[in-house]
Structure formats: C-alpha cells, structure tokens
C-alpha cells in the first residue's frame, strides 16, 4: 500500500520555513491506518517482544495500536511531569535548549525485549534519548520503527549502530 498518499505537507508549520509532514490523515484513514499497523506487525518477531514503547505524542497512536495487534503491553515515554509515581528521567539537548523524557519505574523489566516506535524521525534527538532511557532501565531494544523519516536532517546518523526501519522517506535539507 502507498502510505504516502495519505501524508499531507503543510508549508510554514509550526513556523515559517518549515515544511511539516502531517501523518494525521493516515492515522485517520479506516483503510490506511489498519494496513500500516499490519505492515509493521508482519515483520516483527512477535514471540520475543514483551512491549512496544511509544514516544509522546504521535508515537502513542502507532505504538498502542501495534501493541494491541501483537497482544503485548504498551509503555509510554512521556515528557517530564506527565507520569504519576516514581519515574526514570533523561534530559537531552535540543537545537535550542533541552528537554526531559520519562518512563515509569517498573514499566519494563530488565532484559525485556522492546520495540520503540514513533511517527517521524527528523534530527533524532528525542529518539536517541528514548533509546538511551530504555537501555538505562534494562530494556533490550530490538528495533526502532518510524512511520516516516526525513532524510538529510541527521536522524539516522544520530542513531548509528541501531536497527532502524522507516516505512516512508522524504529527502529534505536543513
């Protein structure tokens, strides 16, 4: 299936000079979204996965649906201050400043095999932080899956040495 036919580009969003790749039409499609989840699921070693972890916020859309399809648990990786109880946090550098992500303590056991998912790989900063955080809590991250990847922004290079799969790719320049 051509998932790209569902992707809409929005110029100057969220600010002037940015071409935004909007995946919401794909997520909202009664034909495209189920096929997207099935396409990802078909290539996974389901018997060995314990969890799907998704990065806030659009990684929740794909991750929760995929975990449901695989019959395994979903674990959210959220921004600081959004999860109750004890959490493990990791701060990381952004282009201008820093951010912090968190996972609940005990959500993933040591050695648990995990698939990390998100909607889009661009610069890779948040994805790298999520991978580092998962490894800090003892997860064995088998693969990271993105619905779309923006080639030319350094994301794949930042995640060098990790197994990465993107269903759609778009060549862009900084």
TrEMBL record:
Enzyme Commission designation: 2.4.2.7
Keyword Transferase: yes
Broad class of where this protein is predominantly found: cytoplasm
Pathway(s) this gene product operates in, as recorded in its UniProt entry: Purine metabolism; AMP biosynthesis via salvage pathway; AMP from adenine: step 1/1
Top-level class of the enzyme under EC nomenclature: transferase
Annotated keywords: Cytoplasm, Glycosyltransferase, Purine salvage, Transferase
A Pfam family the protein falls into: Pribosyltran
Family per record: Belongs to the purine/pyrimidine phosphoribosyltransferase family.
Subunit text: Homodimer.
Name of the protein in question: Adenine phosphoribosyltransferase
Gene field: apt
């Amino acid at each position: 299936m051509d998932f790209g036919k569902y992707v809409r580009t929005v110029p100057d969003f969220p600010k002037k000079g940015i071409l935004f790749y909007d995946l919401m039409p794909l997520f909202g499609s009664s034909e495209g979204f189920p096929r997207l989840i099935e396409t990802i699921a078909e290539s996974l070693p389901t018997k060995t996965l314990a969890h799907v972890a998704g990065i806030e916020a659009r990684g929740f859309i794909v991750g929760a649906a995929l975990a449901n399809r695989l019959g395994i648990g979903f674990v959210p990786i959220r921004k600081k201050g959004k999860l109750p109880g004890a959490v493990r946090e990791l701060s990381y550098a952004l282009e201008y400043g820093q951010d912090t992500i968190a996972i609940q303590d005990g959500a993933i056991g040591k050695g648990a095999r995990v698939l990390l998912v998100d909607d889009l790989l661009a610069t890779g900063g948040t994805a790298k932080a999520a991978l580092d955080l998962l490894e800090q809590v003892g997860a064995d991250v088998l693969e990271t899956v993105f619905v779309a990847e923006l080639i030319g922004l350094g994301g794949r290079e930042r995640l060098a040495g990790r197994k990465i799969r993107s269903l759609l790719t778009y060549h862009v320049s900084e």
